[in-house]
Hints:
By secondary structure, the chain is an alpha+beta fold. It has helices at about 5-45, 95-110, 160-180, 220-235, 255-270, and strands at about 45-50, 55-60, 65-70, 70-80, 85-95, 125-130, 130-140, 185, 195, 205, 210-215, 215, 250-255.
Amino acid sequence: QDLSPLSSDCCDLAIMDDAHDAHVFASITEWCQAWIQSLLSIFFQTGVTFEHSGLTVYFNPNNSSAGEGAYSTVYKATQAFTQEPVYALKRMLIQSDEIRQIANMEIDAFNKFRHPHIIKLLDHARATKSGKRVVYLLFPFMERGSLRDSPGTTVRNQRTLITVLSKFVHICEALNVLHKETPAYVHQDIKLENILVDNDGAPFLIDFGSVRKAELIIKNRKDSLRVAEDAASHCTASYRAPELYDPPQGSTLDTRTDVWSLGCLLFAWWFGHSPFECEFH
Protein backbone atom coordinates (compact mmCIF):
# COMPACT_ATOMS: atom_id res chain seq x y z
CA GLN A 1 0.00 0.00 0.00
CA ASP A 2 1.21 3.45 -0.92
CA LEU A 3 1.93 5.40 2.28
CA SER A 4 3.15 8.59 0.54
CA PRO A 5 -0.02 10.65 1.28
CA LEU A 6 0.27 9.78 4.97
CA SER A 7 3.93 10.65 4.97
CA SER A 8 3.15 13.97 3.29
CA ASP A 9 0.50 14.81 5.88
CA CYS A 10 2.91 14.00 8.70
CA CYS A 11 5.54 16.23 7.15
CA ASP A 12 3.03 19.07 6.85
CA LEU A 13 2.05 18.68 10.50
CA ALA A 14 5.68 18.64 11.53
CA ILE A 15 6.35 21.82 9.57
CA MET A 16 3.31 23.49 11.14
CA ASP A 17 4.46 22.45 14.61
CA ASP A 18 7.94 23.79 13.91
CA ALA A 19 6.51 27.08 12.64
CA HIS A 20 4.28 27.40 15.71
CA ASP A 21 7.18 26.63 18.04
CA ALA A 22 9.35 29.17 16.24
CA HIS A 23 6.63 31.81 16.56
CA VAL A 24 6.18 31.10 20.28
CA PHE A 25 9.95 31.18 20.80
CA ALA A 26 10.22 34.50 18.96
CA SER A 27 7.41 35.98 21.05
CA ILE A 28 9.00 34.82 24.29
CA THR A 29 12.39 36.13 23.17
CA GLU A 30 10.89 39.51 22.27
CA TRP A 31 9.11 39.72 25.62
CA CYS A 32 12.29 38.79 27.52
CA GLN A 33 14.31 41.40 25.64
CA ALA A 34 11.74 44.08 26.40
CA TRP A 35 11.64 43.02 30.06
CA ILE A 36 15.43 43.07 30.37
CA GLN A 37 15.60 46.43 28.64
CA SER A 38 13.01 47.81 31.03
CA LEU A 39 14.88 46.34 34.00
CA LEU A 40 18.16 47.85 32.84
CA SER A 41 16.47 51.21 32.37
CA ILE A 42 15.66 51.25 36.07
CA PHE A 43 19.35 51.00 36.91
CA PHE A 44 20.68 53.37 34.26
CA GLN A 45 17.91 55.97 34.23
CA THR A 46 16.82 58.51 36.80
CA GLY A 47 13.63 57.82 38.72
CA VAL A 48 11.23 60.47 39.99
CA THR A 49 8.47 59.69 42.47
CA PHE A 50 5.47 62.01 42.73
CA GLU A 51 4.00 62.22 46.21
CA HIS A 52 0.43 63.16 45.28
CA SER A 53 -0.16 60.36 42.75
CA GLY A 54 2.45 57.92 44.06
CA LEU A 55 3.62 57.48 40.47
CA THR A 56 7.28 56.75 39.73
CA VAL A 57 8.60 57.50 36.25
CA TYR A 58 12.02 57.05 34.68
CA PHE A 59 13.96 59.15 32.20
CA ASN A 60 17.48 59.27 30.83
CA PRO A 61 19.01 62.72 31.40
CA ASN A 62 21.73 61.93 28.86
CA ASN A 63 19.31 61.24 26.02
CA SER A 64 18.15 63.93 23.63
CA SER A 65 15.33 65.89 25.22
CA ALA A 66 11.79 66.34 23.92
CA GLY A 67 12.12 70.11 24.27
CA GLU A 68 14.05 72.89 25.95
CA GLY A 69 13.17 76.25 27.45
CA ALA A 70 15.10 79.09 29.05
CA TYR A 71 15.06 77.44 32.48
CA SER A 72 14.03 73.87 31.81
CA THR A 73 14.38 70.69 29.77
CA VAL A 74 11.57 68.31 28.82
CA TYR A 75 12.23 64.55 28.61
CA LYS A 76 10.25 61.53 27.54
CA ALA A 77 9.50 59.47 30.64
CA THR A 78 8.10 55.99 31.17
CA GLN A 79 6.82 53.88 34.02
CA ALA A 80 8.77 50.82 35.13
CA PHE A 81 8.60 47.76 32.82
CA THR A 82 7.16 49.74 29.91
CA GLN A 83 8.78 51.15 26.81
CA GLU A 84 6.08 53.61 25.86
CA PRO A 85 6.97 57.34 26.22
CA VAL A 86 3.67 58.07 27.89
CA TYR A 87 4.75 61.14 29.86
CA ALA A 88 6.49 64.43 29.25
CA LEU A 89 8.69 65.29 32.23
CA LYS A 90 9.72 68.93 32.59
CA ARG A 91 12.87 69.27 34.67
CA MET A 92 13.72 72.68 36.12
CA LEU A 93 17.10 73.18 37.78
CA ILE A 94 16.59 75.76 40.53
CA GLN A 95 19.73 77.85 40.30
CA SER A 96 18.29 81.08 41.70
CA ASP A 97 15.34 82.50 43.61
CA GLU A 98 14.00 83.86 40.30
CA ILE A 99 13.81 80.36 38.77
CA ARG A 100 12.25 79.01 41.99
CA GLN A 101 9.54 81.67 41.75
CA ILE A 102 8.97 80.87 38.06
CA ALA A 103 8.56 77.16 38.90
CA ASN A 104 6.12 77.91 41.72
CA MET A 105 4.12 80.32 39.53
CA GLU A 106 3.86 77.75 36.74
CA ILE A 107 2.61 75.07 39.12
CA ASP A 108 0.08 77.49 40.63
CA ALA A 109 -1.07 78.64 37.17
CA PHE A 110 -1.68 75.10 35.89
CA ASN A 111 -3.63 74.28 39.04
CA LYS A 112 -5.62 77.52 38.82
CA PHE A 113 -6.51 77.58 35.12
CA ARG A 114 -8.32 74.52 33.75
CA HIS A 115 -9.74 74.00 30.28
CA PRO A 116 -10.04 71.02 27.88
CA HIS A 117 -7.44 72.68 25.64
CA ILE A 118 -4.97 73.64 28.35
CA ILE A 119 -2.56 70.77 28.86
CA LYS A 120 -3.12 69.10 32.22
CA LEU A 121 -0.43 69.13 34.89
CA LEU A 122 -0.63 65.56 36.18
CA ASP A 123 1.66 66.06 39.16
CA HIS A 124 4.78 67.82 40.36
CA ALA A 125 7.69 67.00 42.63
CA ARG A 126 10.61 68.75 44.28
CA ALA A 127 13.93 67.03 44.90
CA THR A 128 17.59 67.64 45.64
CA LYS A 129 20.07 65.86 43.34
CA SER A 130 23.79 66.07 44.13
CA GLY A 131 23.17 69.15 46.22
CA LYS A 132 21.12 70.85 43.48
CA ARG A 133 17.44 71.69 43.83
CA VAL A 134 15.21 70.38 41.04
CA VAL A 135 11.50 70.77 40.29
CA TYR A 136 9.72 68.20 38.09
CA LEU A 137 6.42 68.75 36.28
CA LEU A 138 4.60 65.77 34.78
CA PHE A 139 2.39 66.11 31.69
CA PRO A 140 0.79 63.82 29.10
CA PHE A 141 3.19 63.09 26.24
CA MET A 142 2.05 64.07 22.74
CA GLU A 143 3.94 62.28 20.00
CA ARG A 144 3.12 64.83 17.30
CA GLY A 145 4.78 67.62 19.23
CA SER A 146 4.00 71.30 18.71
CA LEU A 147 2.49 73.21 15.82
CA ARG A 148 6.05 74.14 14.87
CA ASP A 149 7.28 70.57 14.42
CA SER A 150 4.07 68.64 13.67
CA PRO A 151 4.26 67.71 9.94
CA GLY A 152 1.53 69.21 7.81
CA THR A 153 -0.13 71.08 10.67
CA THR A 154 0.67 74.49 9.21
CA VAL A 155 0.81 73.53 5.52
CA ARG A 156 -2.01 75.32 3.73
CA ASN A 157 -2.49 72.78 0.94
CA GLN A 158 -3.23 70.11 3.56
CA ARG A 159 -5.61 72.23 5.62
CA THR A 160 -8.62 74.40 4.90
CA LEU A 161 -8.94 77.78 6.54
CA ILE A 162 -12.13 76.60 8.24
CA THR A 163 -10.21 73.73 9.84
CA VAL A 164 -7.50 76.06 11.10
CA LEU A 165 -10.04 78.54 12.46
CA SER A 166 -12.01 75.80 14.22
CA LYS A 167 -8.86 74.68 16.05
CA PHE A 168 -7.68 78.24 16.66
CA VAL A 169 -10.96 78.95 18.49
CA HIS A 170 -10.05 76.26 21.05
CA ILE A 171 -6.86 78.15 21.92
CA CYS A 172 -8.80 81.43 22.14
CA GLU A 173 -11.25 79.79 24.55
CA ALA A 174 -8.40 78.34 26.61
CA LEU A 175 -6.67 81.71 26.80
CA ASN A 176 -9.94 83.38 27.78
CA VAL A 177 -9.88 81.33 30.99
CA LEU A 178 -6.89 83.46 32.03
CA HIS A 179 -8.32 86.71 30.70
CA LYS A 180 -11.69 86.47 32.45
CA GLU A 181 -10.15 85.73 35.86
CA THR A 182 -10.41 88.50 38.47
CA PRO A 183 -7.85 89.99 38.31
CA ALA A 184 -7.09 89.02 34.70
CA TYR A 185 -3.92 87.18 33.73
CA VAL A 186 -1.89 86.98 30.52
CA HIS A 187 0.05 84.02 29.13
CA GLN A 188 2.73 86.27 27.57
CA ASP A 189 4.27 83.66 25.25
CA ILE A 190 1.68 82.56 22.69
CA LYS A 191 3.48 80.98 19.70
CA LEU A 192 3.57 77.85 17.52
CA GLU A 193 6.01 76.11 19.87
CA ASN A 194 3.63 76.51 22.82
CA ILE A 195 0.70 74.74 21.13
CA LEU A 196 0.92 70.96 21.31
CA VAL A 197 -1.10 68.70 19.01
CA ASP A 198 -2.49 65.28 19.96
CA ASN A 199 -2.98 62.34 17.59
CA ASP A 200 -6.43 63.61 16.64
CA GLY A 201 -5.08 67.06 15.76
CA ALA A 202 -6.58 68.80 18.80
CA PRO A 203 -4.44 71.75 20.03
CA PHE A 204 -3.35 72.33 23.63
CA LEU A 205 -1.92 75.46 25.22
CA ILE A 206 1.26 74.80 27.23
CA ASP A 207 4.10 76.55 29.08
CA PHE A 208 2.65 78.65 31.88
CA GLY A 209 6.03 79.77 33.17
CA SER A 210 5.46 83.31 31.87
CA VAL A 211 1.93 83.81 33.22
CA ARG A 212 1.43 87.06 35.17
CA LYS A 213 -1.33 89.50 36.11
CA ALA A 214 -2.47 91.35 33.00
CA GLU A 215 -2.82 94.92 34.20
CA LEU A 216 0.42 96.90 34.47
CA ILE A 217 0.39 100.64 35.04
CA ILE A 218 3.41 102.43 33.58
CA LYS A 219 3.93 105.39 35.92
CA ASN A 220 7.46 106.39 34.96
CA ARG A 221 10.49 105.53 32.85
CA LYS A 222 11.69 103.02 35.42
CA ASP A 223 8.43 101.06 35.08
CA SER A 224 8.75 101.20 31.29
CA LEU A 225 12.27 99.76 31.31
CA ARG A 226 11.34 97.07 33.82
CA VAL A 227 8.33 95.87 31.80
CA ALA A 228 10.29 95.93 28.52
CA GLU A 229 13.07 93.86 30.12
CA ASP A 230 10.58 91.36 31.53
CA ALA A 231 8.86 91.05 28.13
CA ALA A 232 12.20 90.45 26.44
CA SER A 233 12.78 87.52 28.83
CA HIS A 234 9.33 85.94 28.61
CA CYS A 235 7.73 86.90 25.29
CA THR A 236 9.10 85.80 21.91
CA ALA A 237 9.98 88.85 19.82
CA SER A 238 8.07 87.87 16.65
CA TYR A 239 4.84 87.47 18.67
CA ARG A 240 5.36 90.41 21.06
CA ALA A 241 2.91 93.32 21.13
CA PRO A 242 4.46 96.69 20.11
CA GLU A 243 3.66 98.33 23.44
CA LEU A 244 5.86 95.79 25.24
CA TYR A 245 9.01 96.99 23.48
CA ASP A 246 8.87 100.48 24.98
CA PRO A 247 5.75 100.95 27.13
CA PRO A 248 4.69 104.63 27.12
CA GLN A 249 4.64 106.42 30.46
CA GLY A 250 1.09 106.91 31.70
CA SER A 251 -0.22 103.87 29.81
CA THR A 252 -1.88 100.73 31.18
CA LEU A 253 -1.11 97.32 29.73
CA ASP A 254 -3.77 94.61 29.79
CA THR A 255 -4.91 91.37 28.10
CA ARG A 256 -4.67 92.98 24.65
CA THR A 257 -0.96 92.12 24.59
CA ASP A 258 -2.06 88.46 24.39
CA VAL A 259 -4.59 89.32 21.67
CA TRP A 260 -1.77 90.68 19.51
CA SER A 261 0.11 87.40 20.01
CA LEU A 262 -3.03 85.46 19.06
CA GLY A 263 -3.17 87.34 15.76
CA CYS A 264 0.46 86.40 15.08
CA LEU A 265 -0.35 82.80 16.03
CA LEU A 266 -3.26 82.59 13.58
CA PHE A 267 -1.05 83.93 10.79
CA ALA A 268 1.66 81.41 11.70
CA TRP A 269 -0.86 78.56 11.91
CA TRP A 270 -1.83 79.23 8.30
CA PHE A 271 1.48 80.29 6.76
CA GLY A 272 3.95 78.41 9.00
CA HIS A 273 5.62 81.49 10.49
CA SER A 274 4.76 84.72 12.32
CA PRO A 275 4.30 87.82 10.12
CA PHE A 276 7.32 89.25 11.94
CA GLU A 277 9.64 86.29 11.39
CA CYS A 278 12.13 86.61 8.55
CA GLU A 279 15.19 84.82 7.22
CA PHE A 280 18.35 86.32 5.85
CA HIS A 281 20.15 84.49 3.06
